[in-house]
Amino acid sequence: MTEPLVMGRGAGRTFGKGATATVAVQPADFVIELEQRVALVGPSGSGKSTLLHLMAGLDLPTVGTIAWPAIGSRSDLRPGAVAVIFQGPSLLPPLNVLENVALPLVLAGEGDEAARSAALTSLELLGLAALADKLPEEISGGQAQRVAVARGLAGRPRLILADEPTGQLDHTTAAGVVETLLAAADAVQAALVVSTHDPAIAARLDDRWEMHDGRLLAAQGARA
Question: Is the pTM higher than 0.85?
Answer without folding.
Answer: yes
